[in-house]
Amino acid sequence: MVRMKDLLHDDLVIDEIAATDKPGVIRELAAHVRAAGKVADADELVRVLTERESLGSTGIGDGVAIPHGKLTAITDMVVAFGRSRKGVDFQSLDSKPAHLFFLLVTPVDKPGDHLKTLARISRILKNPVLRDNLMHAAHGHDLQRLICEEDGKYPHK
Predict the structure, then answer these.
(1) Catalytic center residues
(2) If residue 46 lies in a helix (H) or strand (E), which one and from where to where?
(3) Which DSSP string corresponds to 5-41?
(4) Which of 14, 38, 95, 157 has the fewest beta carbons under 10 Å from its own?
(5) In this structure, is residue 157 part of a structural domain?
């Protein structure tokens, strides 16, 4: 399994998401991933993520959302992270605003990697101390460091 330190680089972290609604967050994350050169078509990524959201919100509660999907046009997994101190209504399971957003996109032909990484992200963000630290971190590189440090606490198989 790939470690967060191998996937989540500074150019894939948004200190403060500007969007104020769910579609805006998805568009902003997709544009950021496109700007980092990880996907060629931000609109296609938005379509895939929105399609997945239509099946049920990826807002898992505790201020966390993990929009995710699969693309045929990529060969490597993509992980990005964004924070909204104000919070965004993401139709989360607990009906509370989401503040911490992990974007996960995997190649269509790697469903096992998709599920393993999704589970890993969920596990990392179950730690309330990490969530609090992420909300109070000053810069994007601090966000990335905190996530990678937490990921390092768990075995990689």
Answers:
(1) 68
(2) helix 42-55
(3) HHH--GGGEESS----SHHHHHHHHHHHHHHTTS-S-
(4) 157
(5) no
Statement: the pTM of the whole predicted model exceeds 0.85: yes
Domain presence at residue 85: yes
- Residue 153 has phi, psi (to 5 degrees) of -75, -15
Q: Is residue 156 part of a domain?
A: no
Residue 116 CB coordination number (10 Å): 15
What would the pLDDT profile of 68-77 be if each residue is shown by its tens digit?
999 998 999 9
CATH number at residue 56: 3.40.930.10
Question: What would the DSSP string read from start to end of 95-127?
Answer: SSPEEEEEEEEEETT-HHHHHHHHHHHHHHTT-
Could you list the residue range(s) of the whole structural domain that residue 57 is in?
4-151
